[in-house]
């Protein structure tokens, strides 16, 4: 994989030139900023900003005013190569909170290995309706705990909206151990680009180390290839990064989500 070429394509297609997320969200270009504004359950945030030490603070303040007026929490995801070098410090000074850093990883979907055999009694079930989304939410809570209930509820609303409004742009799946949901994962397509994004995949601690997450990656990779997408992109946590490394994903950079809550 040509690291520089793939990173340039990622920047261009998913950040600078993105056309929209569908549903109630809209992509706005104002000055040197590309941002997404949607409903309260949508992802709201800054995708791209061409700023330097002389303009960063004013641009940050303008985004705070915009989203505060809309009553929206929003995210500014700083990539490790973004400029200026002290952008993170400036965001903190403006009232943002830094969330745990993630690793941006990419793989060619067609080159990924087939998934391992699932443990006895575990099956992957496509999520297509409200009942499937409920099971995904239960899997999320099993993986991350009740402290993540608010995020789980917000994700559930977002997935329900996507399934209703833009069903061709999302694939979701839940791993069931008998009648117990133990892992939920989804893939979001970016029409007109080479990329599909993998999200979720947290697994119930009692079922980790059995190949379930790897099986969900292989399941989604196969669908991405069938739909003509070349790359899979993941914002990997420290838990999933070693697994993705072994599967053949390449690290492009690190990212830090900075969140502003009005």
Automatic annotation (TrEMBL):
Record-given protein name: GNAT family N-acetyltransferase
Record keywords: Transferase
Single GO MF annotation: acyltransferase activity, transferring groups other than amino-acyl groups
Xref: Gene3D superfamilies: 3.40.630.30
Cited InterPro entries: Acyl_CoA_acyltransferase, GNAT_dom
Family matches, as SUPFAM superfamilies: Acyl-CoA N-acyltransferases (Nat)
Lineage, highest ranks first: Bacteria, Bacillati, Actinomycetota, Actinomycetes, Kitasatosporales
Domain N-acetyltransferase: start-end pairs: 131-262
